[in-house]
Amino acid sequence: MLRTGVAVLFATALGATAFHASAAAPSASAVIAAASKAMGADNLNSIKIYGVAANYNVGQNNNANGEWPRTNLNDYYRWIDFNAGASRATAQTFAPPVTGPTAVAGRFNQAISPTQNGWAQQSEIWTTPWGFLKGAAKNNATVATEKVGARTMKVVTWNTPQKAPSGKAYKVVGYIGPSNMVERVDTWIENPVLGDMLVRSNYSEYREVDGVKFPAKIVRVSAGQTSFDAQLLGADANPTDLAANITNPPPAGGGAGGPPGGGGGGAAAAPPPSTQLAPDVYKINGAYNAVAVGFKDYVVLFEAGPQNEARALAVIAETKRLFPGKTIKYGVITHHHFDHTGGIVAPVSEGITIVTPAVNKAFLMRALTTPRTLAPDAMSKSGKKPIIEGFTGDKRVFSDANHSLEVHVVKGLPHADGIVIGWLPKEKVLIYADMFNLPTAADPVPNPPVVGTQIFLANLERLGIEPERIVSIHALNPDRLTSMADIRASLGIKK
Length: 495
Known about the structure:
Oligomer: single chain
Strand content: 35-45%
């Protein structure tokens, strides 16, 4: 109904506008004033809305072509202060964690303070129906008319005072229906994987409380997939409990701000940029590790675009230092999640072929061919086009006379389809992501067990892989290599 195909919205370029009718249109100020009056927003300085909602985690879908994963928000409340540019939303959650099947209760708390002036945060305020009209009134809006289906809509456009990294202002486009209700607001926000990401907020089923109109139904769509929805039960104009709820409380057990107390001494020494695991095999150290394997004529980089562009560029630079004169030909990604592909533009900018199971290829091609006008990155500056090898089957092997790197698809993992491990059989070194963390001393055998770890071990046993050293892409705590003994011990298995 409100869902638009991913391919269509990925292809929507920033600033692309539909055909606007040439018939004479009323002035923007008149359109904004009429809508503000109809919605009861003229004297609205703040608002509280409440009901039930759902939040979706952009970039963490279990299949690259599927929906963003959903967390239900019960007892949802949100306070918005338009004068201060502040907002806070709270809710009760009950959902299974990524580590296992048993649902746990939790609290949702989203706070936006006036000092958080970036558009990614402030758009949460100024793309609401009331915020949109107030922003339009202050920012030299323009107006046109457009046919949307059989209906004629007034299209109001304004640019934000915030500037994107490129120096451009962000664009906000609102659609006002015949009854002067704001029915849709579009804006674009930079995303390291998705480029100029279209965020579309749809508002419908308007109701009225004390002269103020509010949408009973909200659906926000980010890059073609729902990223937030709500069924609102009510609203309070200029709520008396605003001051008590708009400020984010300090974390439990501590004051606001400041690092925790601790002993004296300086910061721990930074780790070396890389550690040799075997001849021609290096671990590139960091919060997100990578592994570089040198073959006779080229280098393979395992986890080529982790974390963000800066980290990925640093990984590439260290790999070039380790293998001077050799081309980094292939970059394997463990899976498509954005914390593991947030820097994928870096290897693309170097002409490195991205290697991933076929299930991820279509998504990555769409993501990496979107405009990047808000935050030009290494890829867009280089002019290079993405080269993605989506291999079929369960295995991809790189080899020469000295080395073999096997890339295996992990089967049955809820966390992500198309996640892979790297296996160097000669060196007996395994590389993985997201399936095992060292348990704490207080809970050495988690109960219930971590499902991802159980499936990880089952896959290793299925493949007959018995490594002597194991590299986690996420740096472990403490930061070290791990072992099969560690994995089995966390599951209560003695061997």
